[in-house]
C-alpha cells in the first residue's frame, strides 16, 4: 500500500530533481498497449495489467515512465532536455511473491547529445546523492559491451540478430550460444525435420502436416523452415569468440580493474574497442564527480534482467544490509529506444528511477 509518508518522500525527491534542472512531466496512467507490445512482444502481458477501451483499443496500466516520456520527447521536446516525474506504476506479480503490484516511482531522464559519459555520471550522481541518507550500495554494468561483442561475432547476420534479440533473456541467450558454438546435440525432432528438408520442398511438408494450428500462416512457416535449413549449414562460432562472450558474462570486478581485461578481449573481438572507450570515458566522468572507480562494483552483464530497452550503462543502488529488498534505484542508457520511438530520429538518452516506498523501513 502506498502511504502518505511514501508520497511525501517522493515529493521531496522530485523537488531535488527539479532543483537539478529537470522539467516536471506527467504521463497518462493508461498507456496504449500497441507500443509496448511492439517493443517487448507478448512477454509484456505477463507483467502488465491490460484492459480494453471501446474507442482506443487495448491499453495497459503504466508499467513504467520511460517509454511515454521518450515518446513525448521525440514528438517535440527540446534538445537537450531534462525531465523528472512522480507517480504510480503497476506490475503483475504472482500472489505468493509478496511484491507490490502498485508502487511509486520518481525518475530523472536526460536527452543530450553533447557528452554521453558525462550524462551517465550526472544521472548516477544525482540519484546517489538523493539516496545518501540511506547509504546505498552502488553497482554498475554496461550492456553496450555485450552488444558490441555480439555484433562483432564472425557468424551469420541471422545468428547475430537472434543473440541481440535475447541478450535480455539470460537463459535463452545461453542456449543459443551453446547451439551456435556447436556445444549441444540437435534434438531428434529437429534433426528429422532437417533431414526431410534436405530432400523435400517446404510447401510439401506444410501440406503433409495438415490444417494449420496457431497464428503463423504458411508463408511464415515456410520462412522459418528455410531459416532452419540455412542455419544448419552455418559454421559454429569460434571457441575464442565464444570465450570472449563467456568472459564478459562472468566478469565481476571493481570498475577500475575492468578496462585492462576488456582491452585484452578486444584483441579477439575488435568491435569491443569502441565500447571500451565509452567505458573508460564514463569511469573518468564518475571520478570527476567524486565516485572513485575502485569503489564501484562492475559487471558488464548487470541489468540484463531489468527493462529490455537498456543498451549501455546500467546501475543499481541497493539497501545496505537488506539483500531481500529490490534495488532502491535503477537506471541506465537507452539510446536505441529513442530511435525506435523517434520514427527515424534519435538522441542519446539516460535516466534512472527511485522507489520511495522502499525507504520508509530503512535506517
UniProtKB/TrEMBL annotation:
Keywords: Glycosyltransferase, Transferase. GO terms for cellular component: cytoplasm. Pfam families: tRNA-synt_His (PF13393). One of its GO terms (molecular function) is glycosyltransferase activity. Residues 10-230 form the Class II Histidinyl-tRNA synthetase (HisRS)-like catalytic core domain. Signal peptide: none annotated. L-histidine binds at residues 64-66, 91, 105, 109, 302, 309-310. PANTHER family: HISTIDINE--TRNA LIGASE, HISTIDYL-TRNA SYNTHETASE. This is ATP phosphoribosyltransferase regulatory subunit.
Amino acid at each position: 500500500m502506498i502511504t502518505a509518508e511514501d508520497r511525501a518522500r517522493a515529493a521531496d525527491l522530485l523537488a531535488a530533481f527539479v532543483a537539478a534542472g529537470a522539467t516536471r512531466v506527467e504521463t497518462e496512467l493508461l498507456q496504449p498497449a500497441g507500443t509496448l507490445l511492439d517493443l517487448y512482444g507478448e512477454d509484456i502481458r505477463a507483467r502488465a495489467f491490460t484492459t480494453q477501451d471501446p474507442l482506443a483499443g487495448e491499453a495497459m496500466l503504466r508499467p513504467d515512465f520511460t517509454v511515454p516520456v521518450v515518446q513525448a520527447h521525440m514528438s517535440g521536446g527540446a534538445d537537450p532536455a531534462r525531465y523528472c516525474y512522480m507517480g504510480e506504476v503497476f506490475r503483475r506479480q504472482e500472489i505468493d511473491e509478496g511484491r507490490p503490484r502498485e508502487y511509486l516511482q520518481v525518475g530523472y531522464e536526460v536527452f543530450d547529445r553533447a557528452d554521453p559519459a558525462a550524462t551517465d555520471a550526472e544521472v548516477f550522481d544525482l540519484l546517489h546523492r538523493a539516496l545518501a541518507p540511506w547509504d546505498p550500495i552502488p553497482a554498475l554494468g554496461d550492456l553496450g559491451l555485450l552488444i558490441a561483442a555480439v555484433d562483432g561475432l564472425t557468424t551469420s547476420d541471422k545468428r547475430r540478430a537472434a543473440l541481440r534479440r535475447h541478450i535480455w533473456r539470460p537463459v535463452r541467450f545461453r542456449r543459443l550460444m551453446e547451439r551456435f558454438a556447436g556445444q549441444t546435440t540437435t534434438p531428434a525432432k529437429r534433426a528429422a525435420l532437417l533431414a526431410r528438408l534436405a530432400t523435400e520442398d517446404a510447401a510439401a511438408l506444410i501440406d503433409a502436416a495438415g490444417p494449420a494450428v496457431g497464428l503463423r500462416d504458411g508463408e511464415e512457416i515456410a520462412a522459418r523452415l528455410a531459416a532452419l535449413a540455412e542455419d544448419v549449414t552455418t559454421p559454429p562460432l569460434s571457441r575464442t569468440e565464444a570465450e570472449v562472450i563467456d568472459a564478459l558474462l562472468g566478469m565481476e570486478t571493481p570498475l577500475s580493474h575492468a578496462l585492462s581485461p576488456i582491452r585484452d578481449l578486444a584483441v579477439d573481438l575488435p568491435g569491443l574497442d569502441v565500447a571500451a572507450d565509452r567505458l573508460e570515458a564514463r569511469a573518468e566522468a564518475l571520478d570527476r564527480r567524486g565516485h572513485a572507480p575502485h569503489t564501484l562494483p562492475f559487471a558488464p552483464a548487470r541489468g540484463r534482467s531489468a527493462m529490455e530497452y537498456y543498451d549501455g550503462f546500467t546501475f543499481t543502488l541497493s539497501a545496505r544490509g537488506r539483500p531481500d529488498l529490490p534495488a532502491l534505484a535503477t537506471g541506465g542508457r537507452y539510446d536505441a529506444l529513442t530511435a525506435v520511438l523517434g520514427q527515424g530520429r534519435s538522441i542519446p538518452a539516460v535516466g534512472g528511477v527511485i522507489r520511495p516506498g522502499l525507504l520508509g523501513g530503512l535506517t
